[in-house]
Design a protein that fits this description.
Elements: H1 18-29, E1 31-33, E2 40-42, E3 45-47, E4 58-68, E5 74-82, E6 89-95, H2 125-135, H3 152-159, E7 163-167, H4 186-189, H5 195-207, H6 209-214, E8 223-233, H7 236-244, E9 254-258, H8 265-268, H9 275-285, E10 308-313, H10 326-332, E11 338-342, H11 355-366
Parallel strand pairs: 6-7, 6-8, 8-9, 9-10, 10-11
Antiparallel strand pairs: 1-2, 3-4, 4-5, 5-7
Helix pairs in contact: 3-11
């Protein structure tokens, strides 16, 4: 959320994804043409190949929904599964990091014109797709250099035959807003944010075939509706919290929160250090909620956790102040069914750059 405190280290074994890189731009559109005399190549179903994935039957499928991004494009999500899978499998809703952006000052060409908090706008379908691709470890140029996304966590889940549903957040709202329920400052911003709505839709896609069919979507692999897990990387940890508090969600089997800005009061209580971040939080949560924003946290005893909960963080995280994570770590430690792990390393989004950490988290959740 706070891209100010340094760059993440680079890994020489990072997957450069030769052919995959060539078709990345095509994935943003869903398909591309090879030439005037050749058939259109459908890229909505492609192999999931990074060095940590075992076997050769893992695939990625993309879907558009009726929920529109601020730029007017349909929101898009991706599903990772084993093409040879026959039995109903557990599913994980994987919420990516970097879901924070707003327009600093509107230009004359609409609410999205003018400079953004990030130099490259994150209020578009293109960003959401690219961020999912980065999370899968299949994008060479990092959107968030402070992270080292090698795709180890999606690989660990895939290696355990867990179906993954990865929505692309194009609303920059820390997965908080849901039109009609939790509003952003719509009159000021000129558009509605819907990150929480999209995250909730992903759970419904996994558990309600009729809801998916209404969208014209059929998720191919059979999913066990009683084995749904939540995964939140970076800002996606806020999305896990939102879904755990959502009134219409099923009972989740487990959740992983990795490097989440859980205690947002760490920003609002430091106005000199974080004026831009506070302005964004005001637009997302509303001015009237800033004074109590720290109450909505995993450190709050009113949050009902699933039977298995893994809280992964680093007290030396270069992207987040320690006060954004430490209170939850302290409150969760020693609770039944909870594992808290402080790596004390200068990294952010830890499980997606370390296969051992990824396997440890996945084994804890599933076993």
């Amino acid at each position: 959320m706070v891209p100010k405190q340094g760059q993440g280290k680079r890994n020489p074994v990072r997957y450069t994804a030769g052919i995959m890189t060539l078709i990345l731009a095509s994935l943003l559109a869903g398909c591309f043409k090879l030439g005037p005399d050749m058939a259109e190549l459908d890229t909505t179903l492609i192999p999931f190949e990074n060095p940590y994935v075992s076997g050769d039957d893992a695939v990625i499928q993309s879907f558009d929904t009726e929920l529109l991004c601020p730029d007017g494009s349909p929101s898009r999500f991706h599903v990772v599964y084993r093409s040879e899978q026959t039995e109903p499998a557990p599913a994980a809703i994987v919420l990516h990091s970097g879901a924070f952006d707003y327009v600093l000052e509107h230009g004359e060409d609409g609410p999205l014109s003018g400079p953004h908090y990030h130099s490259e706008p994150r209020l578009t379908q293109e960003f959401g797709v690219s961020k999912v691709w980065e999370t899968l470890g299949l994008q060479v140029s990092d959107l968030d250099p402070a992270e080292q996304n090698l795709g180890t966590l999606p690989a660990a889940l895939s290696n355990r035959n867990v179906v993954q549903i990865l929505p692309g957040n194009c609303w920059g709202d820390l997965w908080h807003n849901e039109e009609g329920v939790q509003f952003n400052e719509i009159e000021e911003e000129g558009f509605s944010r819907n990150g929480r709505a999209f995250a909730a839709w992903m759970v419904r896609m996994a558990t309600d075939a009729d809801f998916a069919a209404e969208q014209g979507i059929e998720i191919t692999p059979a999913i066990d509706p009683d084995s749904i897990y939540l995964v939140g990387l970076g800002d996606g940890g806020r999305g896990v919290l939102e879904l755990l508090n959502h009134p219409s969600m099923p009972a989740f089997r487990g959740a992983l929160v990795d490097s989440s800005p859980d205690n947002l009061a760490a920003f609002t209580e430091q106005p000199t250090d974080f004026p831009d971040e506070i302005d964004g939080l005001r637009r997302i949560f509303g001015s009237e909620n800033l004074a109590s924003i720290g109450d909505f946290s995993l450190a709050n005893a009113e949050v009902e956790l699933p039977p298995r909960f893994y809280y992964l963080w680093s007290s030396a995280d270069p992207q987040l102040p320690q006060a954004a994570m430490a209170p939850a770590a302290s409150a969760l430690r020693n609770q039944m069914g909870v594992q808290v792990n402080d790596t004390a390393t200068q990294d952010h989004v830890l499980s997606n750059s370390d296969m051992d950490l990824a396997n440890d988290a996945v084994e804890f959740l599933l076993d």
